[in-house]
Amino acid sequence: MSPDKLAYMANQIAKFFHSRPHDEAVAGIAEHISNFWEPRMRKQFFELLKQEDQRFDPLVREAGARIKPVG
Predict the structure, then answer these.
(1) Strand, helix or coil for residue 42
(2) Rg for the chain (alpha carbons), in Å?
(3) Which of 5, 6, 27, 41 is the most exposed place for a label (fewest CB within 10 A)?
(4) CB 41 within 8 A of CB 1
(5) Are 14 and 28 in contact (CB under 8 A)?
């Protein structure tokens, strides 16, 4: 998947959760990505987050530490 598409998808999830309290939003983003993104997508997400974290909404960056690792 293109990095642009992956970042867009993650940021769309964050956009949905922006109306929630901060901790609930971070947990919701992490839970959604952990439960619905296949391992290849999560692997690419972690690589992109490490290399170009500015692509991601601050809530997504914070949720990164809570997302289920790959492998």
Answers:
(1) helix
(2) 11
(3) 5
(4) yes
(5) no
